[in-house]
Design brief:
This protein has 16 helices and twelve strands.
Length: 369
Amino acid sequence: MKILVIQQKMIGDVLISSIICNNLRLAYPEAQIDYLVYESTTPVLEGNTNIDNIIPFQQKHRKNKKDFLNLALKIRASEYDLLIDAYSKLESWIIVLLSGAKRKISYKKKGRTFLYTNNVSFAAFPKTNLGLAIERRLSLLKPLDLSIEIDPLPKLFITEKENQEALGFFEQHKVKKDRKTVLISLLGSEKVKTYPLEYMAKVVDTIADKHDVNILFNYFPKQIEDAKIIFNACKASTQEKIYFDFLAKDLRRFIALMNQCDLIIGNDGGAINIAKALGKPSFIIFSPWIEKKIWATFEDGMQHVSVHLNDFKPKLFATKSIKKLKKESLFLYQEFTPDLFKDKIERFLNQNLNNPPKKNITVHQKNVT
C-alpha cells in the first residue's frame, strides 16, 4: 500500500499534520507513507520513521508552472493507493486531480467535493482539549475506520549528538546550570501576530521578578532591532538574566536547544508547537485575530495555558469577522495589557518551575452545544 499525505504550510501545521503519518504507520506498518511539505519545514520531520519519503515542495514549484506540473506528474507516476490532503488549497487540488490515487480524502469544501472519494466535514468547535488544529487532522482518518488507538501527540526526534551539541552551546554561553531555563517566543512571524513590544517587556519582567531563571529570547536575525527594543525596555535586574545572543543557527539546532529548556512563553507560532511536541509546558499569548479554539492545543490550565483578548473583553469581538479582526489587530493588541493575565502567568510559572512536568498529556472531553 502506498500513501501520500499533503500539508503545504508552515512549521506548526506540518508538525501537527505529521500525526496523520504516525497513526497511519500504526494501522499499516508495511505501507509506504510519503509526506509532501514545503521544503523549509522538513527539519521538524527528520528522524521520524513513520515517514518513508519526504517530498519537498520547493519555491520553483510555486513560481514555475512547468516545474509544478513535473512534480504533479512524478506523484502520479508513484501510483498512490491512498491520498490524504490536509492542505486543501489550489496547489494541492491540482496535485490531487492529477494524482490518479484510488482513494482521496480531504475536508468538505463547496465546489471541490468531486476531487475526493471522501469529504470530511470541517468541525467548527473542539470536542476535547486537543484543539481543532489536531481534531481536524485526526478527522481525516475516520473514513478509514482504523482499528488502532489513535495517538494525537506530534513527535520530534533528536539525536544524542544534537543533544550534546546543545548542551555544549549552553556551556559556551555560560548559561547557569543551577537555574531553570525559560524560552521566550519573543516575536510573531508578522506584526499582526506579535504582542506589543512594550507589553512583552513587562511579561519578561514578570517572569524575572519572582523567579531566578535563565531567560532566552527566540527571534530571527532580521528581527534583532525589535528584540533589542524589548530587551532595553526590561528592568536592569531582568536584563541580567537574559542571554540575548543565544540564537540557534538553524531549525534542527533550535529544536535541540528547546529540548534543554524547561518551558516556553510568548507569541503563538512554530516555536510553541515545537516545544509542545518536546513535552515542554507552554503559555501562549494569542493575537486578537487568531482563533484560540484552533491552536490552543492540549490546554489543561496547568501545563498548557493560553490567553486571548476575547477571554477578557468579549464585547470587542462581537459580530466581527476574522478578516475584520485581522485588520484591527494592532488596535486590539493595545487593549490586551499584561495586567489582564499577570495572575495567570504567575500561576503557570509557579506550577511548572516548581514541579517536574508531567510525561503524559490528558485529553479532556468538552461539552459542545
